[in-house]
TrEMBL record:
<protein>
    <submittedName>
        <fullName>Antifreeze peptide 4, putative</fullName>
    </submittedName>
</protein>
<keyword id="KW-0812">Transmembrane</keyword>
<keyword id="KW-0047">Antifreeze protein</keyword>
<keyword id="KW-0472">Membrane</keyword>
<comment type="similarity">
    <text>Belongs to the type-I AFP family.</text>
</comment>
<keyword id="KW-1133">Transmembrane helix</keyword>
<feature type="transmembrane region" description="Helical">
    <location>
        <begin position="46"/>
        <end position="68"/>
    </location>
</feature>
<dbReference type="GO" id="GO:0016172">
    <property type="term" value="F:antifreeze activity"/>
</dbReference>
<dbReference type="InterPro" id="IPR000104">
    <property type="entry name" value="Antifreeze_1"/>
</dbReference>
Length: 72
C-alpha cells in the first residue's frame, strides 16, 4: 500500500511539474510572440516616419526649385 501511495504521489508531482513547465513554456512563447509583434510595429512606425521624411524633403526641394526659378 505504501509503495502504491508513494507511486501515486510521485506520479501526481510529476504531472504537476509537467503541467507547470508546459504552462511556463506557453507563457514564454506568448511573450516572444508579443515581443515580435512589438518589433514589427516599431519597424512599421520607422518605415512610416522615413516615408514622411521623404515626402517633406520632396516638398522642400520643390519649394527651393520654385524659388530659384522665380529669382532667375
Amino acid at each position: 500500500m505504501i509503495d502504491i501511495g508513494g507511486a501515486i504521489v510521485v506520479a501526481s508531482t510529476t504531472t504537476t511539474i509537467t503541467a507547470t513547465t508546459t504552462t511556463a513554456a506557453a507563457a514564454a512563447a506568448a511573450a516572444a510572440a508579443a515581443a515580435a509583434a512589438a518589433a514589427a510595429a516599431a519597424a512599421a512606425a520607422a518605415a512610416a516616419a522615413a516615408a514622411a521624411a521623404d515626402v517633406v524633403m520632396a516638398v522642400v526641394v520643390m519649394l527651393v526649385m520654385s524659388l530659384i526659378e522665380k529669382i532667375s
